[in-house]
Amino acid sequence: MAVEIHTDDFDPWEIVRQAETAIPANARGAASVFVGRMRDFNEDEDVTGLFLEHYPGMTERELERIVAEAEARWPLLGCHVAHRVGDVRPGDALVLVATWSAHRVAARDACSDILERLKHEAPFWKRETLTDGTQRWVEKNTPGF
Amino acid sequence: MTVHVHYFARLREELGRPNEEAELPAGETTVGGLWQHLHQEAPPERLMAAVNQEQASLETPVRDGDEVAYFPPVTGG
């Protein structure tokens, strides 16, 4: 299990490739990967920049707790979570959740559960900058999208 | 007793400070009670909190030396 906070742009696919080498090749029947990136629009407005704030210490602990609870619930062979903080540009990766298991349902369900819990429980906050320079804090995640 | 208070995101900007030290009479208070003591008003709706970097509610006890954080709903991912 690994949890990472990135202050600069990161390549989620390179992380997946590296992490997968640590999992026994003959056992990893299924991998499920979610990559979230910054859009240049939100709620019908153009967004030019995003600042992601976190709570150093607590954020890592919350991510580790969420992953540990998923590992207790599903038979996972590996799990990797990465999240960006700081000033972000459109197209940059914001979040990576990758899970490996012998079978598809465990990998897929654990990946989905970790992502949804991360969005509702881990201390991260987004502040958007719009084209006219105004800034606004995102008040809630888009449910069910 | 002394409590270390942190604010994040919109709350941090609105209050104009990322943290402060709270001095309270010896004894025990709660997350909600500490907010009332510091701001002289009831906690805002949808306020989230943590005590010693673990999720907390307004009823969670606060003791001498604790780290208490207040923040708006989280929006990561």
Please characterize this protein's 3D structure.
- The complex is a heterodimer of chains A (145) and B (77).
- Chain A has helices at residues 12-20, 58-73, 104-121; strands at residues 2-6, 30-37, 41-42, 45-54, 76-84, 86-88, 93-101, 124-130, 135-137.
- With 145 residues, chain A is α+β, with helices and mostly antiparallel strands.
- Chain A has one domain (2-137): Molybdopterin biosynthesis MoaE subunit (Aldehyde Oxidoreductase, domain 3).
- In chain A, the strands form 2 sheets. In chain A, strands 3, 4, 6, 8 and 9 form a 5-stranded antiparallel sheet that branches. A 4-stranded mixed sheet of chain A has the order 1-5-7-2, with helices on both faces.
- By secondary structure, chain B is an alpha+beta fold.
- Chain B has 2 helices and 7 strands, in the order E-H-E-E-H-E-E-E-E.
- Chain B has a 5-stranded mixed sheet with strand order 2-1-7-4-5. In chain B, strands 3-6 form a two-stranded antiparallel sheet.
- In chain B, a hairpin with a 2-residue loop joins strand 4 (48-51) and strand 5 (54-56).
- The longest helix of chain B has 9 residues, at 31-39.
- Chains A and B meet through strand 4, helix 2, helix 3 and strand 8 of A and helix 1 of B.
